[in-house]
Amino acid sequence: MPAFRYVAIDPAGKMARGVMEAANEAAVVQRLRRDGHLPVRTEPDTGGSFLGRINIEITRSGLGAKDLANFTRELSIMLAAGQDLDRALRFLVETSASRRLAAVVEQLRGAVRDGDSLAVAMGKQGGSFPRLYVGMVRAGEAGGTLATTLDRLALVLERQRSLSSSVRSAMVYPTLLFIAMIGSVSFLLTSVLPEFVPLFAQNGAKLPASTQLLVDLGHVVATDGLYILIGLAVCALLIVQALRQPRIRLVFDRLMLRLPILGRLAREVLAARFSRTFGTLMLNGVPLIAALGIVREAIGNRAAVAAVDAATVSAKSGSGLSRPLSEAGIFPVRMIYLLRLGEETAQLGQMALRAAEIHEEETRLGIQRLVSLLVPAITILMGAAVAGIVSSLILAMLSLNNLAG
To answer: What does the pLDDT look like over 299-321, one tens digit per residue?
Structure first.
C-alpha cells in the first residue's frame, strides 16, 4: 500500500506532520478528518530519499502570484455563474494566456476527473498552491461554499499583489539613486584621485592626509573590490543560516519590531497579514483554533507566532484572543480593539477583515512616508560623499600651488 506525507492542523490548533499508508490521498484526507484534524496538504511519500525530494522540487511547475490570482478570480466567477468544476477548469485551460498556468490547470482537471477533490488535486501541485490556499479550498469544499471561498481567496491574493507592487514601485527610484551614488563615488576614488599621486611624487611632496586616505581607499576598492564583494556575500549567507535558528530568529524579529520607523511599518504589515488571513478563514467556516493554527504558519514573524500561541491557549480556555494579543505588545491597538469588538458582537471574521483593510492602507501610507524619507537621505549622503572627495581634490590642488609658489 502506498505511503503519503501529510500536513494538518490537529484539534489543539498545532501543525501536525507525518506519513500515512492508504489507498490514495482521498483516504488520507478522510482518515485525518475522522481523527479531528484539518488537512492542509498531502503528497506521495518518496521514502525519505534525498534524490527523490530533489526530483519532486525540480519537476514542479509553480505558479507566480499573478497567475495564481488570475486563476482564482476566474474560477470563482465561473463557479458562481453555475458552471460545474470540470467545465470551469476546461474553460480556463482553453482561454489561459499562460502556458504554465494552462499546464497546471490541465493537471488539476485530470486529477479531478480521476476522482480527487480540488483541494487534493491542488495539494499535488505543491509548488503552485500554498498550504493556506489548499486548506481554505478544502474547507470551502467541505462546507459547500467553494465559489465564495475562491472569491475571498482572490481578494486576498489581489491585495497582496497590490501591496507588493506598491513596494516595488516605491523602491525603484531610491535603488537607482543608491546605485548612482555607489558608481559615482567608486569612479572618483579609483579613476580621479590616483591622478594626483604622480604630481606629488614628481615634486617630492606628500599628499594631504585626507587626500591620501581617499587614495588608499580607492586602491583597496580597485584591487580588492571583488574579494570584498565575495566576503559580503559569505557574511550574508552566514547571517541567513543563523536566522534559521529559532532562538536567533526570535531575537532578530523582536529587534525589528522595536526599530523607530521600520518597526512601526513591520507591525502594520503583521497586523494586515494576520487580520486578512484570520478573517478570511473565519468567514470560510474554519474553526477558531484551526484558523489560529494556520495563521501561525503564515504570519512569518517568530515574535508574532509566540503571541498567536498565547492567544490560542487563551481561546481554548474560553478567555478570548484579544487580551493575549494586546499583552504581547506587537500588534497595533486598532487591530486589538476591532478584534475585541468582533468577539463581543459575534462578528470576529468581519471585524478582522475590517482591521485588515485599515492596516493595509496604513502599510501603503507607511511605505510612501519611508520612501519620502529615504530619497532625501540618499541624496544628502551622496552629496556629502562627493563633496568630501571634491574638497580633498581642491586641498591637493592648493597644496600643489603652494609648492609651486
So the answer is: 778 888 888 888 888 888 888 88
